[in-house]
Specification:
The complex is a heterodimer of chains A (174) and B (557). Chain A is mainly alpha-helical and 174 residues long. Chain A has 6 helices and no strands. The radius of gyration of chain B is 24 Å and the shape is globular. The chains are: A mainly alpha (174), B mainly alpha (557).
């Protein structure tokens, strides 16, 4: 998983470089300053899900199934909230500001970068849900703690990428 | 006992209907079978891409030739380049790595066998997609149309306006899919090498092939992914109307060049490092001496891995970067010659004072040493920006990188075939046919690629489908074409040798070369589980220790 994360980081690096390279190079509007609002609440959701998943896998190691289940569910809910936030933002950008992927360079780079991240969140949520189903079926015990740890590594990575994306898109990019 | 097992296996294989055999191969997760599948698949594409090269050479044989149309010529060089890099050299190297790494480090399989099979089939799908473009390239409304944008696929050639139809999409998706396959293999190889070594196999005792494969896999992870990201952007441009590489909306064609070469140059090292690995295994065995300067070899490889990340823009001196960028990339390009020179020195040091046996694998390795040196020297010439401004995009460049890829990498791959074929099939390759193959190939290679430098210096640009007579290029081009035919014949000799030897070759036994690494301690071909009991090693040459208990390496370790 560490290797996969290295590879994924390289992909994100390239797209972030493309985003930064194209900041302010759009020939037509709308520009990021006009339309972007900083999604602070949803960012807090995603970042705190890193904490919940960490404590979830800790409690699994110690064999506390109930605590694990609760924290795991909370992680999924927080991740889902974040995705909902992204969806809401996209809906607003498309219907209120008319910004699509082919409108201008900002649209192209913004949707590619945020979309790639959202795809990773979606994949992560699917995997988390699979573990949830197994857990509800009673198949997850302390002996699977190492595997759950691998999954939580991926989730931490997705969160870490969001910190970069957030900085690039909502702080530097404006 | 092992011969009994072998006999039973052959009897079983003969008794089984072919459907079951096929099913066993398609569904296999065994690293040895997947390795052979990779190699076989690469050989098929080697034939195809070789035919494409011959078509180009016939077209350029004399001035104003009209063997193929300009459009077909463009498709030929695009497909030749793409196929050779992604579907010949990479699979064949992955194949050998897959086959050899677990055997060499004393493991029973790769770390993730099913991921291994998945990666192979992704790569296979990529190659089939690329070639399906001949049929489906223009969609339903026209004749077939393969990609014709060159293997760099520079923007804006790839935009909808200049590449209508689906040919470029097949190119993009094929590379994306096979790129994911390669990343899977890279992850798998790293995990295998780091966590599956047998007891006593410390990192400092690993065979050099395992070390070099580790560095190569690291490069795969870091440098293939930029290509995947760039392909995703290209797909967004082509399908969703994005503007990444669309200069009319403020996009940048230069950015594609940067992204492509951030992948493209480390890719050269992904290809050549396994070739170094083969040489580092074969040269000591046929010089009857342990490798000279093992820690320095490892260090030089890691060094090459790092420096190769910072040389990419030496492919782009002609786009007009500022002079400090030019100076940086000239310097890094020169610096990378240092660890490479150390490697050549160490191989020569290994041969120095050894009892050299001139068997076919060793002949190919010696050819590699000479040709690699010359390829490196023309590389340094091209790495100097002013020289590059003069010759970039000429046949000099074509000659340079073919010297590297054919003269160095392909020669090592041939050496590896002759060296490990006995292990994979249990039969020796015919030595006299092998020598014929070597000499024919050397003559053909030098006729083609030595003479190709000269029209480049005389100003012949690459990728032209024909030229005016009377520029001093005619005779040279004819010689180049003749040389390419000789290489083709040599390759046919090689294929014939493999087929004949597979059925009638001399039995190899476990250890035909009196070698020192663990793969030679098991039967040929090895059983599915590799090692009946996991070996324990005490030095870099475990088999030497076993054969010479009176003077084991471990005393000096």
């Amino acid at each position: 998983m560490a290797c996969l994360i290295i590879a994924e980081s390289a992909i994100f690096t390239i797209i972030v470089v493309a985003y930064l390279f194209y900041v302010g190079k759009s020939l037509t509007g709308p520009t990021p300053r006009e339309v972007l609002e900083t999604p602070i609440f949803y960012t807090i959701c995603l970042l705190s899900s890193s904490l919940t998943i960490h404590f979830a896998s800790r409690s699994l190691e110690r064999g506390k199934r109930g605590a694990f289940l609760g924290l795991w569910l909370l992680t999924i809910v927080l991740g889902g909230l974040f995705l909902f936030g992204t969806g809401q933002e996209w809906h607003r950008l498309i219907y209120e500001h008319g910004l699509t992927i082919s409108t201008n360079l900002f649209g192209t780079t913004y949707y590619s970068l945020v979309g790639l991240h959202a795809t990773h969140v979606t994949v992560g949520l699917l995997m988390l849900s699979i573990v949830l189903l197994f857990c509800l079926a009673g198949r997850v015990g302390p002996e699977q703690a190492a595997r759950v740890d691998v999954l939580s590594m991926y989730w931490h990575f997705v969160d870490g990428v969001w910190v970069v994306v957030f900085t690039v898109v909502y702080v530097l990019g404006r | 006992m092992s011969s009994d097992v072998m006999a039973i296996q052959t009897a079983e294989a003969a008794g089984r209907p072919w459907v079951q055999t096929l099913h066993a191969w398609v569904t296999t997760v065994d690293h040895k079978r997947l390795g052979i599948l990779y190699i076989f698949y690469a050989l098929v594409f080697l034939g195809i891409a070789g035919i494409e090269a011959i078509v180009m050479r016939i077209q350029l044989m004399h001035a104003h030739n009209d063997f193929v149309s300009p459009q077909v010529f463009n498709r030929m060089f695009t497909m030749h380049g793409t196929t050779m890099i992604f579907f010949v050299v990479m699979p064949v190297l992955f194949g050998f790595a897959n086959y050899l790494v677990p055997l060499m480090i004393g493991a029973r399989d790769m770390a993730f066998p099913r991921l291994n099979a998945f990666s192979f089939w992704l790569t296979a799908l990529g190659g089939i997609l690329l070639y399906f473009s001949f049929v489906g390239g223009s969609g339903l409304y026209g004749a077939g149309n393969a990609p014709d944008v060159g293997w760099w696929a520079y923007a804006p050639l790839t935009s909808r306006a200049f590449s209508p139809g689906h040919s470029t999409d097949y190119w993009t998706v094929a590379l994306l899919v096979s790129g994911f396959g390669s990343i899977g293999t890279g992850v798998n190889l790293i995990a295998t090498i780091l966590s599956m070594r047998c007891p006593g196999m410390k990192l400092s005792r690993m065979p050099l092939l395992a070390w070099l494969t580790l560095v190569m896999s690291g490069l795969v992870l870091i440098s293939l992914t930029p290509l995947s990201a760039a392909q995703l952007m290209l797909l967004v441009d082509r399908y969703l109307g994005g503007h990444f590489f669309d200069t009319q909306a403020g996009g940048s064609a230069t950015l594609w060049m940067h992204f492509f070469w951030i992948f493209g140059h480390p890719e050269v090292y992904i290809l050549v490092i396994p070739a170094f690995a083969f040489a580092s295994e074969i040269i000591p065995v046929f010089s009857r001496k342990p490798i000279f300067g093992y820690p320095v070899m490892v260090g030089a490889t890691v060094c090459i891995g790092f420096v190769s990340m910072s040389v990419w823009a030496h492919h782009m001196f002609t786009i007009g970067m500022n002079s400090s960028a030019n100076a940086f990339f000239v310097l890094t390009t020169m610096v990378i010659a240092v660890p490479t020179g150390i490697k050549i020195f160490n191989w020569l040091g290994t041969m120095w004072g050894g009892k050299i046996q001139f068997k076919t694998p060793m002949l190919f390795c010696i050819g590699f040493l000479f040709q690699f040196l010359i390829a490196g020297l023309t590389g340094i010439m091209l790495g100097a920006a002013p020289f590059n401004w003069q010759l970039s995009g000429s046949y000099f460049v074509v000659a340079h990188f073919h010297y590297m890829i054919v003269g160095a990498i392909l020669f090592c791959v041939f050496a590896a075939f002759y060296y490990w074929f006995p292990k994979m099939t249990g039969r020796m390759l015919n030595e006299s046919l092998g020598k014929l193959h070597f000499w024919l190939f050397v003559i053909g290679f030098h006729l083609t690629f030595d003479f190709m430098h000269i029209p480049g210096v005389l100003g012949m640009p690459r990728r032209i489908y024909t030229y005016e007579p009377g520029r001093g290029w005619d005779t040279l081009n004819l010689i180049v074409t003749i040389g390419s035919f000789i290489q083709g014949i040599a390759t046919l000799v090689f294929v014939a040798n493999m087929v004949l030897s597979y059925f009638q070759g001399a039995k190899a036994g476990n250890d035909p070369w009196d070698a020192w690494t663990l793969e030679w301690s098991v039967s040929s071909p090895p059983p599915a589980y590799n090692f009946a009991s996991i070996p324990t090693v005490a030095s870099r040459r475990p088999l030497w220790d076993r054969k010479h208990p009176e003077d084991p390496d471990s005393h000096y370790d």
